[in-house]
Amino acid sequence: AQGHERLLKVRSLVETPRPSLGSDTEDEPEGGPGSPGALRRGLRSTSYRRAVVSGVDLDGSSNCKKKNRMSQPILKAVVEDKEKFSSLGRIKKMLKGQGTFDGEENAVLYQNYKEKALDIDSDEESEPREQKSDDRVVFHHKPLRSTWSQLSVVKKNGLSEAISQEERKRQEAIFEVISSEHSYLLSLEILIRMFKNSRELSLTMTKTESHHLFSNITDVYEASKKFFEELEARHQNNIFIDDISDIVTRHAGSTFDPYVKYCTNEVYQQRTLQRLLATNASFKEALSRIESHEDCRNLPMISFLILPMQRVTRLPLLMDTICQKTAKDSAKYENCKQALKEVSKVL
């Protein structure tokens, strides 16, 4: 009854001209298209939107569809179009040969990235449920990025089912470090190319102000690139990753030094940005134009500037998750504890 009442309410808002069906209505099965039973059947085979808006037989003639199409909204999925962003093409060339992260589902900026491994104990299904799609309503149930269990090679070989649930969670946590580093690297590339290297923006401020804003972000980027390339090489060598603790320990002890300098500069960075926005109209206008560029995906520059602080904070959490999923009486556990200790030192 509630579904029928909701149907009538929505129809009153999106009412469309309804063609006369003539004798076709007499041949309808029990319960017209407006009945609750028909609505339930419609929900099983088509989208709710189509069942509500059309007001005609769901399998009606093409003429009926054409008449209603002008008044019916055509829903399109809002997704990040990989081909729109030239930065994705640049980063793919730079990381040539690393096919795991070439797909559109992995072109997620770090600002929009959520580490699933930090909630790895949830009982949610890792596989999205398949649903039938309508010819005018586009459904995208595929996650924005791949997890370890959803990799095609893992599915093909049945690796996820062949190991224990605890080991599967450990593999997810290890893969999370690699995939999140890729997303982070992509965002850093946009920060450098669109903001730091922008001649339009640099002309609105002094070299000192520019240094305060961007500091040694290029060195941070190079450190991330080296870290990711070694992680990805380990992943390409074997889809079932035995351990990455040695890589994390080595890079945290030396490669991550630029993070300390960059994060120390944060106070000057924040003060400089606030002053420029408050007193420099040319800077503010140029910044606004850059932020509205499709490569930046309407994200503010500050969301890119704070990424190294976010990354250096999340890495210990990810390594701690791996430790929790590693057998306490194994050598891998001791290695993981050492890696956690090293990244915590950086933090």
Automatic annotation (TrEMBL):
The keyword Transmembrane helix is annotated on this UniProt entry: no
Gene3D superfamilies referenced in this protein's UniProt entry, alphabetically: Dbl homology (DH) domain (1.20.900.10)
Domain of life: Eukaryota
Start and end residues of each stretch annotated as Disordered: 1-46
Annotated ranges, domain DH: 169-347
InterPro entries: DBL_dom_sf (IPR035899), DH_dom (IPR000219), Ephexin-like (IPR047271)
SUPFAM superfamilies linked: DBL homology domain (DH-domain)
Transmembrane annotation, as ranges: none
PANTHER family xref list: GUANINE NUCLEOTIDE EXCHANGE FACTOR, RHO GUANINE NUCLEOTIDE EXCHANGE FACTOR 26
UniProt-recorded name of the protein: ARHGQ factor
